[in-house]
Design a protein that fits this description.
Layout (H helix, E strand, L loop, with lengths): L1 H37 L3 E11 L4 E12 L8 E8 L3 E6 L2 E6 L4 E6 L9 H5 L6 H7 E11 L3 E10 L7 E6 L5 E7 L5 E11 L19 E2 L1
Parallel strand pairs: 6-12
Antiparallel strand pairs: 1-2, 1-11, 2-3, 3-4, 4-5, 5-6, 7-8, 8-9, 9-10, 10-11
Length: 225
């Protein structure tokens, strides 16, 4: 009888824990949705870590990001001005990117789904612009627990598994108490990862389309990437 009681108690605890986790996940998604609706613009410092699984090497890049969310009248706008280790400028408007490398006198233009190297950052940053409906429609969302990131920032750690075929197999978000995704990681099928961390964040400042235009010398012919 005692064993039966303990068995029932064990499963009651598991189901109760699952129910509590689901309630917390719903609250996190609610805060993310409220934050998404209130965010009109963003500027922040950014650190990108790109891990190459084949070489077991990690490249770290630092810079500044500007962001305008997608609306009914315009697509998502993202601009990255990398400063370390080399200067590069990337603009993503909707699903089209422009990458300017002053040091090499090169400009690449193409679709983010086909992007290589640093242009893939748009995939990771794109999660900032997703509403609760978009997340739930496109991903199975799992709550992985609490975790501190840069500067002891308390976050909720989420796993996103795509419901449809994509050019990556999974993604992870670290969301703060306000519902702001502070860190995102995209894991590709070959094990490569791109991790984006935002800090020194300024929200709802004045930005316009011109702030996302990349200017480069007229004699440079863009390469289709």
């Amino acid at each position: 009888m005692r064993k039966t009681f303990l068995f029932i108690l064990f499963f009651a605890f598991i189901f109760a824990s699952q129910a509590n986790a689901q309630l917390l996940l719903n609250e996190i998604l609610k805060r993310m949705d409220e934050h998404h609706k209130a965010l009109t613009s963003l500027q922040a410092r950014v650190i990108m870590e790109k891990y190459n699984a084949q070489l077991d090497e990690t490249d770290v890049t630092e810079g500044i990001v500007k962001y305008l969310p997608k609306t009914s009248k315009r697509p998502m706008y993202i601009r990255l001005d990398w400063t370390k280790p080399v200067a590069e400028q990337i603009s993503v408007i909707g699903k089209i990117y422009t990458l300017y490398r002053p040091r090499l006198n090169q400009v690449y233009v193409g679709k983010t789904d086909e992007a290589r190297n640093n242009a893939k950052v748009g995939n990771a940053l794109g999660f900032i612009s997703m509403s609760r409906q978009e997340l739930k429609a496109n991903y199975t969302v799992n709550y992985l627990g609490k975790e501190k990131i840069r500067g002891d920032i308390e976050t909720w750690h989420l796993e996103l598994i795509p419901k449809k075929p994509t050019n990556y197999k999974s993604a992870y978000l670290w969301v703060d108490v306000d519902g702001m995704p502070r860190q995102a990681r995209v894991v590709e099928s070959n094990g490569d990862t791109t991790t984006i961390l935002l800090y020194d964040i300024q929200k709802n400042i004045t930005l316009n389309g011109a702030d996302f235009e990349i200017k480069y010398p007229a004699n440079i012919k863009p390469i289709r990437g």
